[in-house]
Design goal:
mainly beta; two-stranded antiparallel sheet; 14% helix; Porin
């Protein structure tokens, strides 16, 4: 009788004592009868190790969770790179030295051009250009003076070399001119339009995202002015300042 009472007292004290902080498999649940145990396959407080539980969690998740997880791990394609620095519309101001190559009585002068360029591909662009030039001088007692307005359509090839853009091209157009030759007794004045062509090469470098500085050499070829028996073949060396607008 005493032995049974002792066993009952030990069991009673064990049931009433509080469990530890960690809930272990096989321990009695707090507030439950002594005989009720937590099944080992019902609970596990140990966090799954990385890389092992992730596939299982993904498989067990809802379809939405799977899609979100797949998107998170899906390799993202880089957005298509910006088209090359030559893929742009560019407005350019050009100005500098002008020299007549055919009329001896004309000395050096100046030229100012405005150009608008549109790229058709990474390496080819079309350029519309017009401007103004002026030169005068004298030779063997003959004074000459000419000014003109060239209007050209050019094809332009572009080649990037490091930070510098090299280019070259050619075009056709017309030049409106007003020319005068004065020999004292005889004076001849002529004006009109001449068919013309040009060839050029140059280089530019970006100083800001939308600003480019450069240098361009250009040669003009024209018909002869009948009354003066000279042409307006000439050479120009110009500094350029371009303002870009991306396509």
């Amino acid at each position: 009788m005493i032995r049974c009472a002792s066993i009952f007292a030990v069991l009673l004290v064990g049931c009433m004592s509080a469990p530890g902080n960690d809930l272990l498999v096989g321990q009695p649940r707090e507030g439950s009868p002594c005989g009720e145990r937590i099944e080992s396959d019902m609970v596990s407080l140990t966090p799954p190790s990385e890389g092992v539980a992730a596939p299982a969690a993904l498989a067990a998740g809802s379809e939405t969770e799977q899609l979100l997880t797949a998107e998170a791990f899906e390799p993202r394609l880089l957005s298509s790179p910006a088209r090359g620095r030559l893929q742009e519309r560019r407005f350019t101001v050009k100005g500098g030295y002008y020299s007549s190559e055919d009329a001896d009585e004309l000395d050096d002068g100046y030229i100012v051009n405005l150009a608008w360029m549109k790229s058709m591909s990474r390496s080819f662009a079309v350029e519309f250009e017009f401007g103004y030039f002026d030169a005068d001088g004298d030779d063997a007692g003959v004074k000459g003076d000419v000014w003109g307005i060239p209007a050209m359509v050019n094809g332009r090839l572009n080649v990037p070399v490091g930070p510098i853009d090299l280019y070259g091209g050619a075009g056709v157009g017309n030049i409106y001119y007003d020319a005068e030759a004065d020999a004292g007794i005889v004076s001849v004045d002529a004006d009109g339009w001449l068919f013309a062509g040009d060839a050029f090469f140059g280089a530019t470098i970006k100083v800001k995202d939308s600003l480019a500085l450069g240098l361009e050499a250009k040669y003009y070829m024209t018909e002869e002015i009948d009354s003066l028996d000279v042409s307006l073949d000439s050479f120009a060396l110009m500094l350029t300042l371009g303002f870009d607008r991306s396509l």
